[in-house]
Amino acid sequence: MNDITDRRSILRAGGAGLVALAAGSLPLSASAEPTAGGTLTDLGEPVHKTQTQSSAIANGPDGRPLAYLCAEGNPTTPGEFAVVDLRARKTILDVRIAAGASIGRNLSISPTTGDVWFGTSDGAELYRYTPGATAVEHLGSVSEDQRIWALRAGDDGTIWIGTYPGGLLLSYDPETGETTDHGQALAGEQYIGSVQQVGGLIYCGTQPNGRLASYDPATGTFTEVALPDGPVASDITELNLRGSLLFVTTGARTYVLDTESGQWIDTIPEVSGYGVSPVDPRDDASVYVRSGNVIKRYHTQTRALEPIGWSPNATPETWAWVDLADPASPGLSIAFTYWNNGRIYAFNPDTSGGYYLEPDLLGAGTQLVAIAAGPDGAIYCGAYLSPPGMGRWDPDREAFELLTGTSQVEGFGTFGNDLVFGRYPQGRLYRYELDRPWAMGTNPGPAVDLDGRGQNRPQCFVQLSETRMAVTSVPITGRHGGAITLWDPLSNEVEVYDHVIRDQTPVSLVLHDGLLIGGTSINGGYGIDPVTPEAKLFGWDPETHKIIFETVPVRGATTVAGLIMDEHDRLWGLADNVIFEFDPVRRVVRHRARLFDEPGGSRYGNDHVLLLRDDRLYGVTAGRLFEFNRRTRRVEVLDDTVGARHLAADRAGDLYVIGQATRLYRYRR
């Protein structure tokens, strides 16, 4: 074990983000050499979850109601398919699929065969399950460059597929195994998030701009269908045909289209969850929807909306009518699935009898999206779409602790002795007082959201004073114009300044002589292409809110990240795979060195970080943990085996990286 005094050498960390190098003719000079001078230890998976965004409920071959659930995997663990018997409250099949980890909301049951179809959203792998079978059939990929983002079985059994990033409509013929590309539904829209057949037409709902299109297979043409309020600034999340009515769910509302007259006839307000239930078989004149956080009956003829006395604390993913064969509550119940832990809820409207099941599923380690050292020296780990919470590694006890309730943490910072962090998708900013016990809602207490101001991914935090933080953030889906937010963590007052650099996203910040020096990404929110060619380095005055300077530190770099000031007041950063030294007084790049030959870009650069110890810089890029000697300008690769991302150091000086997507690794000299 290394000497503890040496390991307690002070490390200084720059904000995680993107940076670009200044233009010029400075030579590139560095050499990469692997080294075995330290020990890399796998500490495990800080967060484990079961997330079932793809699901359906239907009667099995013997008439018993079954739930079909697809749970997320991770880059090293394939996704999961399970079948749950609702009456027996038992998981009767639970298997890993052949390939792919991410399975979005794209599961459908064929009306002609009863087969269950689903696909992967981190690729385009298609699967079929025949109820009663003991295995899932892998049918292969339906596209080389697209992801399956929506899937719906048509009236004749044809499988209709919406994709990302092309926003294409595909069809798959189960008889021939052939896939047909019908083209992009609407120009400029990268996602088709919902598909529904209506007679001879196929309706498609887009993301990130909520637009509706119909496709006529006979003519091969798409026609945009104008929504009552025009295109909405949110996804169309679900399309449901109920009788002759098409329910279009988007944002916090559901529009109702009479497909026979072609007229919009109603809008259901305050909708949460995905779509409406099948028509009530008891009256053939009503459907159910979660509106105003309670379940309500919607009368399709009178358009009346009324609560039924059921207020489950969950948003429906998919609905069904089922007979649970419960003597205490006979007859049909309305059931739905919920994505967290595969939960299943049901309610009998006649008896008010309830049902709840959290089935036994495998689950998987959650992908980590950010790590950082807190003021207490512990390592905090934010996880992807994580309702369980975030992980905390205590280097003294050498143990993880789960801090529940945070969802997806995108960035961390320090405010005095407190930990501050930002959450996706609300762009929510929190302050956690480390000298008090963790209790979500109390400590951290009240938060402030930035999504109403067009921002949803807080990335980098820099303390400016005893009452003010600067926070960089990525804009909401489909938008350019990331922001710097000035935030008072004590009062939660915020000032949001977007488009600091026009059409770019500020993602990395340091404070130097009262000036915020930042780096950008050319990317905006997801679902929109960059409109600028290269990332910038800039200076921004937090008092006047004006740009003092801007420059391109490295031609063609897409991000500028890992900004950090050294003891000589020189700025260091990473521009894709180039490390650079910048003089903030003369505002020129003094040195730059290409670390590795292959591209090392990162969408927002938050996984490109630099730390400083003595005359060495430690960093991550291109999946490598490296050491850069500022004196000799030489690079040593410390590890290239785990796909290292992000970087943090504990109070003893040990380094931590995310590896294998879900695991925390410690590197010790």
From TrEMBL:
Region (Disordered): 33-60
SUPFAM superfamilies: Calcium-dependent phosphotriesterase, DPP6 N-terminal domain-like
Keywords annotated in UniProt: Signal
UniProt signal peptide: 1-32
Highest taxon above the source species: Bacteria
InterPro entries: TAT_signal (IPR006311), WD40/YVTN_repeat-like_dom_sf (IPR015943)
Protein name: Outer membrane protein assembly factor BamB
